[in-house]
Amino acid sequence: MNRPAAAPGPSSAPHPFAPVSRRVLLGAALAAPALVAGPARAQTVSLRSADIHPDGYPTVEAVKYLARLAEERSGGKLRIQVFHSHQLGEEKDTIEQTRFGVIDMNRINLGALNNLVPETIVPALPFLFPSTERMFSVLDGPVGDDIKKGFESHGMVGLAFYDSGARSFYNRGRPIRTPADMRGMKIRVQQSDMWLAIMRALGANATPLPFGEVYSALQTGVIDGAENNWPSYQTSRHFEVAKFYSLTEHSMSPEVLVMSKRAWDRLSPDNREILRAAAKESQPYMHRLWAEKDAEARRTVEAGGAQVNGVDKEAFVAAMGPVYEQFTRNARVKALVERVRAAG
Ligand code: BDP
């Protein structure tokens, strides 16, 4: 550790660059004591995690909770900083950066991965699950593990699935009760071919847009409507510019926390273990936050003028045939859908 030979002294050769290189060497030794002391002393690892939602949103709070657990259990050596509110960009961009290791962790909706990882289409398929409880009981088992495995060949590791409730349509003009009411409407969707197919099946015009652009697109009339769960409808303030919320509850596409495979591969086995356990424990924590936020968001938008109406759900379910036909042509998707159905 103490290497007096490196100490600068008046007898050193008077080379013009010598003082600089000595400072660099000394600095490196101070910044990376583990390298000098040997592998026994773990280095501090700092990870950056992205989320488009604002601070306080359940997904952001779940990853902050995970970060607290990881920091405690690693004796402060594993640190995770959550960059919320789009600070690192829209989901599509952050996914690319996660795959290439520029961003270490990313909380996104599975819908954002549909085109890249076909397995992620399964939980997002319209009306596949009768309830979010049923969906999570399936995702917590081998089907969920197989969906997560799908990430690995695309540079990501799946750490946790989080609640996202059910998504329903909302628009500026009128209540939607049947698919016929949506004919010709311009509806914003996530950037996923599955969502384009859903809109086609309903006779609407799909407009794929990043989430952060939806408010002004609604406000200026570039689109007529969008679809989302209560908390996103509320925190994005879309309810101010699209007040008709129609309870189609057509998809339960969950949230997912992924890690860059490059960042994962660099972690020590101990840190991987800490992260996996903390991610698992953040799920029930998030579940509680979600239940509270879901109810509060609905109250807030209704108090703020949102008009909520029921729909002819059977008519929406019946219209989804072409979506299933198109996406279960992929053998892996088909097999997973069959397993979901067999699970009851
Ligand atoms: C929200 C998800 C968010 C998605 C957004 C969207 O939490 O990750 O990006 O929907 O529709 O519910 O793009």
TrEMBL record:
Pfam families: DctP
Keywords: Signal
Cellular component GO terms, alphabetical: outer membrane-bounded periplasmic space
Keyword hit for Signal: yes
Molecular function terms, GO-annotated: carbohydrate binding
Any one of the GO BP annotations: transmembrane transport
Protein name (database record): TRAP transporter substrate-binding protein
Organism of this sequence: Roseomonas acroporae
